[in-house]
Amino acid sequence: MLMLISQTEGETGMSGGASLTKSGHIAGLDGLRALAIDEGIVLAADKFGKAKTVLQIFAIVPLTLHYPLWGMDLQPLGLGLLYTALVLAIVSGSNYCYDFYCNTRKQAG
User: Fold this and answer.
1) Assessment of whether the complete model's pTM goes beyond 0.70
2) Residue ranges of E strands in 1-109
């Protein structure tokens, strides 16, 4: 949804690569969580995932204001927050994969 909000008429918003990365992150983590549940593993959210969520929430307001507010264009601020959230999503997803790997190795060994 945020990927759609970031696009304005005549402007591009998030790049296609960033949108694909975010969509892949969501699909991959949903699959990983399903595997973890089948194995009886609980993957808790880490601080990077929580920070990502906060940044996405803060990005909503500047991205929905498609007009200058007090003479400032807030679209670049919203996109900056969104790209920072994308980086945190990659870090958080990597941590999820590492935690899943460590937990499955612990159960196997």
Assistant:
1) yes
2) none
